[in-house]
From TrEMBL:
Full protein name: Alanine aminotransferase
Domain Aminotransferase class I/classII large: 31-387
Cofactor (UniProt): pyridoxal 5'-phosphate
Domain of life: Archaea
A single MF term (Gene Ontology): transaminase activity
Coiled-coil portions: 284-318
Pfam families for this protein: Aminotran_1_2 (PF00155)
Keywords annotated in UniProt: Aminotransferase, Coiled coil, Pyridoxal phosphate, Transferase
Length: 396
């Protein structure tokens, strides 16, 4: 057998890895309630009609060619306006790259930053592609603590203690995946100031920026005068178009300290040819058209968030903080016979037929936790959590 590369074989992605044992149950005819993947399109959410129509019209009107590697100028101009209107950030079209979702934005950025041996500071727990892609490029994840009893807010002093000469950037995921935390302006300003002290950029993942329930999202780019900020965003979550695989990154850098990194990202963008051309027409319609759909979707999500928070805290040996953004909840497992959280998740799957994601799959800080989405209707959530409660009673 031809040996595969170690860097590829060592990649793990817990959110989708847990689907493999679930499929074995489904192959036997067992119904599994899947609360593992943050995909609104799997439930009663959909991209708005004007976005879908624009996408379809683009296909029918011949926008089926290779586009510009950096993305279509029309969409990039709309992103510039969007970021100015929402965050007060002054960027130009040349600062924006369209990507195949945020996953590719992470890939391009780490490919441009990392030669091997460098460190990136990221929250614990954290969205898995940050650590996995960093390690793929030979970098080293440095994890800073987020404090569960303080609604998973970042510990800036812990961040300060962990920065070394090899640290190339600080990652902020806000609202956070997997915890649903929303970081306040004061904390973000401290992070910007810390990055400035060490002359490193902040990488800000803002894919859930308009999905908040208490408080409003603040972008670090809006708080920085001279610290460069690389922002990731896209159309999967706020615009409910997950399968379109369209995102973007932009670099807010008034001093030009990231000019070479920007050039490297552009080179990598050309190697992968271009993002989805007709889809960009639909994405642009999302940025320029009505967002009235968002109010109703937020109302549904908040009701489901409140139900999940209340119901999970009623289950013995399960305890959770209330998420303030996104559509995830990250409960703690207080006791039981399981050696670790992955064993717990697989036990729940095999015996209660409900699929969660083990918290350790999100790295340091996720141990003895699990992540659930609260995207399904309350009737489905109730059924899943009733099964979980019955399972816990049997095990404890």
């Amino acid at each position: 057998m031809l040996k595969a590369s170690d860097r590829a074989m060592n990649v793990e992605y817990a959110i989708r890895d847990v689907i493999l044992p679930a499929k074995k149950l489904e192959d036997k005819g067992i119904q599994v309630l899947k609360l593992n993947i943050g995909d609104p399109g799997k439930f009663d959410f959909d991209a708005p009609e004007h976005m879908k129509k624009s996408y379809c019209d683009a296909i029918m009107n011949g926008f089926n060619y290779y586009g510009d590697s950096e993305g279509e100028s029309e969409l990039r101009e709309s992103i510039v306006k969007r970021e100015k209107d929402k965050n007060g950030v002054d960027i130009g079209v040349d600062d924006v790259q369209i990507t195949t979702g945020i996953s590719e934005a992470i890939n391009l950025t780490f490919g441009a930053l990392i030669d091997g041996g460098e460190e990136i500071l990221m929250p614990g727990p954290s969205y898995p592609p940050y650590s996995e892609l960093l390690k793929f490029y030979g970098g080293e994840p440095l994890v800073y603590e987020t404090v569960e009893d303080e609604d998973w807010q970042p510990d800036v002093e812990d961040m300060r203690e962990k920065i070394t000469e090899e640290t190339k950037a600080i990652v902020v995921i806000n609202p956070n995946n997997p915890t649903g935390a929303l970081y306040d302006k004061k904390t973000l300003k401290k992070i910007i100031d810390l990055a400035g002290e060490h002359e490193i950029p902040v990488i800000s993942d803002e894919i859930y920026d308009l999905l908040t329930y208490e408080g409003e999202h603040v972008s670090p780019a809006s708080l920085s005068e001279d610290v460069p900020v690389i922002v990731f965003n896209g159309f999967s979550k706020v615009y409910f178009a997950t399968g379109w695989r369209l995102g973007y990154l932009y670099i807010a850098d008034s001093e030009g300290g990231l000019d070479e990194v920007k050039e490297a990202i552009e080179k990598l963008s050309r190697v992968r040819l271009c993002p989805n051309t007709p889809g960009q027409k639909g994405a642009n319609a999302g940025l320029t058209g009505s967002m009235n759909y968002l109010e109703e979707n937020l109302k549904k999500l908040e009701e489901r968030r409140d139900f999940a928070y209340k119901r999970l805290n009623e289950i013995e040996n399960i305890q959770t903080q209330k998420p303030q953004g996104a559509f995830y909840i990250f409960p703690k497992i207080l006791g039981g016979p399981w050696k670790n959280d992955k064993e717990f998740v697989l036990d729940v799957l095999n015996n209660a037929h409900v699929l969660f994601v083990h918290g350790s799959g999100f790295g340091e800080g996720g141990e003895r936790h699990f992540r659930s989405v609260f995207l399904p209707p309350i009737e489905t959530l109730e059924k899943a959590f009733d099964k979980l409660e019955k399972f816990m009673r049997k095990r404890l």
